[in-house]
Amino acid sequence: VNIAAPVSCTACKARHFASCQSLTGSGLDAIAGLKAGDRRLAAADHIYREGDIIEDVFILVDGWVLLYHMLEDGRRQILEILLPGAFFGLQPEFKAAMSHSAVCATAVKVSVFSRQHLMNKFHDRPELALRVMIMCARDRLALYQSLTNLGRRTARERVAHLFVELDHRLRARQPGVVSALPLTQEQIGDLMGLSKVHVNRILQDWRQQHLVDVGRGLIRIQRPAKLADIAGLGAEEKALRRTA
Amino acid sequence: VNIAAPVSCTACKARHFASCQSLTGSGLDAIAGLKAGDRRLAAADHIYREGDIIEDVFILVDGWVLLYHMLEDGRRQILEILLPGAFFGLQPEFKAAMSHSAVCATAVKVSVFSRQHLMNKFHDRPELALRVMIMCARDRLALYQSLTNLGRRTARERVAHLFVELDHRLRARQPGVVSALPLTQEQIGDLMGLSKVHVNRILQDWRQQHLVDVGRGLIRIQRPAKLADIAGLGAEEKALRRTA
DNA sequence: CGTATCATTGACGTCGGTCAATTCGTGTGG
DNA sequence: CCACACGAATTGACCGACGTCAATGATACG
């Protein structure tokens, strides 16, 4: 039984990114019948907050969502960026407080499902649980990347890495378009463990080199190849190709 | 259907740590019949390396295992510490190169299972896939904690956090014993994104305050409560209790 | 005993944080 | 259409946490 969803980017340059979080085509369309409804939210709205006890799980239909964790003194770490197709809100323990918050970076549309119904569905159609498990394992790779980013890369490498990853995830949806990220510099800082001031300095530098373009609340990725270079992806790929 | 494994630490002070990775008692004992054999390894041996293509998955029986990712220039990030009971080696894509390496921190014994047989078993007994999925979700919480650690905490907070987490995970197995960590200072640095020199300075400081004791290749946690304080866990818990 | 690994310590440098002051941009109300 | 408000972006000055380098000491192991 080969239960893994077919994944197209096995050989592509950014395969280390979990760019394939989408459920579309992975069999979980089957849960569409369980939908409890859609919910529309505005930028900066919260879908849930750390400590909430929720009965639902979500699939992101439109917009960007950020999962984050906040320390009591105001320091914030953004944990994941969710793009349309992402499945989220499922905690390991039922009736437990959410371990993190989910906030909209843009206007957002989510499909809402009853967690209980979903679990029942897993019981009826076990292959769905397997698919979710595999998604979960895939997400883990992305988290591993983020750990390496935060722990062992310089500020510029981190931000370049982030941009290349997002460029890749967006290109998979809209090939041929210059990727535009609806993120504030502060959000980028909270993603990469940096201050917004330092993020700004990096962006200024790159803007002068025409690697990115900033404006209108968007960051446009103009030379992803050069950014991949800064991120240190080139050499790493070579090393992997040798071992493969 | 309540499929979540009973977890005892819902209310305990360190519940944010995924200290409960163990499979024991979570229903996956059922896969014991699939065991392909045991493997014993010495400290510093690798179970697999980044880039390897393996057919097996593992359950750690004895010893400590470190999962890590290495950059081409030698920088290393340790991604997870595995204690006995941990299930690992399952990649989202079959026949794909491992995304990380697994190395023994101590002498180790692992049970080896054929991934193919395991997947067949999931097919026969779907509730097992669900359990693994839930484990996976639980691990994610630990990874979220690590991200917050690396991105938004100071060096001392990070190391204190690590020690408290490990102390908790060890106490769950051996209550009443002073926790002793078989980690080098360099490994602690690679876990927390620090240089081994800086780790040493922090440890010297704490040793003089009798918070920890160093020697014989072990780090003994003597005052976990004080370390939890340094880690900033006290205030955070209060904040959570308010919301709950 | 020789060798290798880990731990320790000091001197020094720097990456990135903090603080604070503008400036810009966008949306709002008059 | 303009005045204003408010958040985001920008810039400079300053500094401190942590890294790097290098030398020395402690331990273990064959």
What's the quick description here?
The first copy, chain A, has 244 residues and is of the alpha+beta class. Chain A is built from seven helices and eleven strands.
Describe the structure.
Two copies of one chain form a homodimer. Chain A has a four-stranded antiparallel β-sheet with strand order 1-8-3-6. In chain A, strands 2-7-4-5 form a four-stranded antiparallel β-sheet. Chain A has helices at residues 115-124, 126-152, 155-171, 185-192, 196-208, 224-231, 233-243; strands at residues 35-41, 46-48, 56-62, 65-70, 76-82, 87-88, 101-104, 108-114, 180-181, 212-215, 218-221. In chain A, a hairpin with a 5-residue loop joins strand 4 (65-70) and strand 5 (76-82). In chain A, 45% of the residues are buried. The radius of gyration of chain A is 18 Å and the shape is globular. By secondary structure, the first copy, chain A, is of the alpha+beta class. At the A-B interface, strand 5, helix 1, helix 2, helix 4 and helix 7 of A face strand 5, helix 1, helix 2, helix 4 and helix 7 of B. Chain A binds a DNA duplex (30 and 30 nucleotides) through residues 154-155, 184-186, 194-198, 200-201, 203-204, 214-217.
